[in-house]
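[job 4471] stage=fold_predict status=RUNNING
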Amino acid sequence: MVAFGKKLKDRQIQEWQGYYINYKLMKKRVRQYAQQIELGTQDRRHVLKDFSRMLDNQIEKIVLFLLEEQGLLASRIEKLGEQHNALQDEPEIRKISELREAYRAVGQDLLKLLSFVEINAIGLRKILKKFDKRFGYRFTDYYVKTRANHPYSQLQQVFKHVGLGAVVGALSRNLHELQDRQGSSYLSIYDQPTLPLQDPVIDSIKAAVDRLTNSTNFLNFLGQHALIMQEELPTPSEEHVDDESYQFMSLLLNLANTFLYMINTYIIVPTADDYSISLGAAPTVCGIVIGAMAVAQVFSSVYFSAWSNKSYFRPLVFSSVVLFLGNILYALAYDLNSIWVLLIGRLLCGFGSARAVNRRYISDCVPLRIRMQASAGFVSASALGMACGPALAGVLQTKFKIWKLTFNQDTLPGWVMAVAWVVYLIWLCINFKEPSHDTEENHMPSQSNDEENGALEKGLNQPLLITSEDKVDEDADQDCDESEEAPEESRKPANSFGSAYRLLTPSVKVQLLIYFMLKYVMEILLSESSVITTYYFNWTTSTVSIFLACLGLTVLPVNIVVGSYISNMFEDRQILLASELMVFIGVVLSFNIIFPYSQPQYIASGLLLFVSAEVLEGVNLSLLSRVMSSRLSRGTYNGGLLSTEAGTIARVIADATITLAGYLGESRLLNVTLIPSLFIAISSILATCYTYNSLY
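[job 4471] inference complete, writing structure tokens
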């Protein structure tokens, strides 16, 4: 991992060097504050005031330079506009071509300015995060709250790049007109906003603006659900994964694994209560049957994540074999008349969860240029599997025997999935190509040697005595509080859950709580649907299957609307809070208190709850990847694993709640299981309000 301080220095435009955020100075000042407070020579109030003043000065320097450069670009565009108008009367191909190149040159300079703003915005976020972590303050909350909403806010200029949109618009319009100058079209980009502009400069500018504003589209929003974390300001070596390590068929096999696993998870939901009854258990034991898979996944996620450090093929083979055996046991439990065989089968299915491997393959082996598409494919495969599972269960409504084996609506999901995993295993063995895992290791020795040689040469040129000023710089560089110049050990990935937990800031903990909440309420809704609808409405298995399949099919349309429109109109934190409130309303509407419980109430509240949770998941994981430490972007104990564990534990607790609540009777099951959902939803809303400004 390359330190942010080094990335900042490498990415700086030399002639603008004095206008970037002085990250090293501010980091040094944070360290000095810590020493002064420890010695008692400075009080906290003075530290906050002094650091606020420093930040204000840094932001003012950045903004004034930004405005100056914007003015220069606007002036150049205005002069080019005069030449453009002159061509209206006497168009010449040569002059049109020259004018287009001149506009492109302005576009290239605009790209530099956008990069300047992006680097400074990231630097500001990092130094605020470092200050909060070092002192345990909520300084970011205070600073953003007092600056961002002020009518003369300079912070808005940095994070919202006010005014640059007009420059981008002027460039786009003029280049578009010059492009169609020889054609018969006289339409402006304002007449047809969706009209594609075939110019790489504008495409690059648009990508830079989207990245800077956290603007998104359907593909990006969908990809956020995968929580495949990436480094801020990736270096050129990090931006390009070796194409030789990537093979489309291998990616497709990982997506197929995700798809089949999600089918395997939800195909039993409509019939789990009937299966439990047929084995002599209570219908609410379906909570344990469904949750057994999640219990095993808590452990399997860890060893699969660690295993993927060495191989991708072998974990996928192991996953397929274990899932095959688990489904066979699940199907045989009926003829063996054993609830324990049923549970062991589901546990084995959970031990075969290779979603950590699927995520790691996309993160490590898919080139950056298509990684977002691959992430979106991962989420789409999951959503499609969630919808197909219950739908497939609704189709398998038949009963027959072959020898002594019974095939009915309870056992057929196991038999069908066993066959599916055998077919997948054969496909995997034929087409999967194991990528190289030693690329990074091969580069390490040469890098180490280069550093040693560089240090030796540097040492020969250093004075024998170090001045006090140099000593301060050296000490500052040894700051190990997630410092960018810290020793390599302090930048290594977390190697245990304990070390990963110590890297979690309050904002990250709140986002994990939200993820826990949404997975909990979704699991309650889905897992008890068969029992609830049978008790209140006498729904058949087919009806339950259709209902669950319809819920699953809402995932992609909802993400299209949110990703393409809503997320471009509102900030992520605003959508986050609004989605939490909608989940809360959905939970409240689900209670059976006063009026007789009706099908419209159940369907409407369930749909509201599920859709709100889906919206919340995308925004939550987007914010989580933004506020999480970069040390959690790689390694075994990464951010994806932490979120997976949080969600899996939520599912386990939800399924256990259903089973325990069943002892109180089916008439009380609905309200009893919704009470914890209500409490967790309220807690997450309060926690979000507490950390709201730190999500800026």
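[job 4471] summary: The longest helix spans residues 44-86.
[job 4471] exit 0
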